[in-house]
Design brief:
single chain, 116 residues, 0% strand
Length: 116
């Protein structure tokens, strides 16, 4: 797996706060990863059932070539983080900031009395 550098100035171009942009991209990458994982689980489900409930003793330890091909295909895909960064740079999605609630500050009362 190679490392792909990202120009931070490009990330900063749409929004001033780079940290918020990175957080938004990472949330998008997590969503992409979850979608791909669900797809992989769906494709591998028949093979998991065959392993759990083998028809014979020989099937219990069997490795299915189709299962390996599916896994290799998913491994060779572009990583979710790379897809999220590319999508952001190509303006396929954007994020909006919610209003940040300001914390309430309660005054501290000094009830200390000097015993003098």
């Amino acid at each position: 797996m190679s490392v792909n550098p990202v120009d931070l100035n490009k990330l900063r171009s749409a929004h001033a706060n780079l940290y918020e942009t990175v957080v938004a991209i990472s949330k998008r990458a997590k969503k992409i990863h979850e979608e791909e994982r669900a797809e992989l689980e769906e494709k591998l489900l028949p093979y998991k059932e065959m392993i759990r409930n083998p028809g014979s003793e020989s099937e219990s330890d069997k490795v299915f070539p189709e299962q390996i091909a599916i896994s290799l295909e998913f491994e060779s895909r572009e990583k979710a983080s790379q897809k999220a960064v590319a999508g952001y740079l190509q303006h396929r999605y954007d994020y909006t900031l919610g209003k940040i609630a300001e914390p309430k500050v309660t005054p501290i009362e000094d009830d200390e009395t000097d015993g003098d």
